[in-house]
Specification:
Elements lengths: L5 H4 L2 H11 L22 H17 L4 H8 L3 H8 L2
Helix pairs in contact: 4-5
Length: about 90
């Protein structure tokens, strides 16, 4: 994201009003929250972890122990429990 000169995109009266609040400092305007994406949606990590967690749940229902699952997936037993009981 790059800087945009406010005088080029905002009316002069609004720039003057903003200067009354900010002075000569920089003002950051964050993006709208509705346009934010969820964690992992760009990289695909969310889908990878969801598939892994479903696999863990299936193996547990097939008879695997929490300790076996923790060792297989290199996770702590508490993390396996959190996945199973969620």
């Amino acid at each position: 994201m790059s800087y945009i000169n406010a005088e080029k995109v905002l009316p002069a009266w609004l720039v003057k009003k903003i200067r009354g609040y900010v002075g000569d400092g920089l003002l950051y305007i964050p993006p709208d929250k509705s346009s934010r994406k969820k964690w992992g949606s760009n990289s695909g990590a969310r889908q990878i972890f969801e598939a892994r967690n479903n696999e863990i749940r299936m193996k547990k229902s097939a008879g695997a122990t929490i300790l076996q699952l923790a060792e297989k997936y290199h996770l702590s037993e508490d993390t396996i429990k959190r996945i199973l009981y969620k």
